[in-house]
Amino acid sequence: MKGSNLGEFEELVMLAIGVLYPDAYGVAIKDEIIARAGRSVTLSAVHASLHRLEEKGFLQSEFGEASQKRGGKRKKNFYITAFGAKTLEEVKSLREQMWGDIGKVALQGN
Amino acid sequence: MKGSNLGEFEELVMLAIGVLYPDAYGVAIKDEIIARAGRSVTLSAVHASLHRLEEKGFLQSEFGEASQKRGGKRKKNFYITAFGAKTLEEVKSLREQMWGDIGKVALQGN
DNA sequence: ACATAAAATTCTACTTTGTAGATAAAACAC
DNA sequence: GTGTTTTATCTACAAAGTAGAATTTTATGT
Q: Which of B19, B99, B108 sits opposite A101 (nearest CB)?
């Protein structure tokens, strides 16, 4: 009974899009996540995620103009929808509340 | 090449354990998440997650004492390990940084 | 124009997480 | 013992995460 939830990586992708706005496309998103999270990410992982996020209505996309660079396909730029922003803020708020209710001792495990 | 990452639901479970410390066991965790996130959660979903989190070293567990004049199996109480706490704080910090770099406009999509 | 290289997206296949429902175990009351 | 309550475990499948290969589109050199 789900498909309305935001996976861990999906959330990272959304945040990267927010940071890169309005120039968020596959490669840039991949590089942004690698730089920020310091973890290896493949382009196909990002694209699979982007596709699912768009299907769920969290994102929207449009092809950009042909660039002045060496060659290559047109970039597909992604934007966060109002629904996506709302969802993103909800999970943020939930975590903040929970963190606020966590005592120091709870994190001192061995 | 992974098994060292924290899934979306897994993170929620960890936070709930932090909040409930030192009385975090299956049922209580399930109820805490339902109350906080307002989403339906089954006990088996929580236990599957707990099991995986323990395997990954994020959690530790021990069976509680019996005889609280109650009935039922002994509770299995979960605690966050130092490694788990570190991981939890890392993802928190990463998201905070990204949120800090997101412009207002980026979230005003249609 | 044609061949080649570059930049990007899409496809295919597999692993790990997420989810639900059914089953089993342990403690209590009688 | 039998039955009831509370909890954990098992089985099976769907969704999200991941990697590598293949494909498409655009630009440049000749």
A: B19
Nearest CA to CA, how far is A99 from chain B (Å)? 7
Residue range B8-101 forms a domain whose CATH class is mainly alpha
Residue B15 CA to residue A69 CA, distance in Å, equals 46
The single-letter DSSP state of residue A74 is: P
How many Cβ atoms from other residues are within 10 Å of residue B66's Cβ?
11
- The residue that leads in pLDDT, B4 or B7, is B7
Tell me the fold of A8-102: Arc Repressor Mutant, subunit A (1.10.10)
B19–A102 C-beta distance less than 8 A? yes
**Ranges of H-type helices in A4-75:** 8-20, 26-37, 43-55
Question: What are the tens digits of pLDDT across the range B55-96?
Answer: 999 999 999 876 677 778 999 999 999 999 999 999 999 999
pLDDT digits (tens, 9 = 90+) for A37-56: 999 999 999 999 999 999 99
In DSSP terms, which residues pair with A79 in a beta bridge?
A: A60
A6 phi, psi to nearest 5 deg: -105, 115
pTM of the shown model: 0.93
Q: Does the distance separating the beta carbons of B92 and A95 come in below 8 Å?
A: yes
User: Between β-strands B59-63 and A76-80, what pairing exists: parallel, antiparallel or unpaired?
Assistant: unpaired
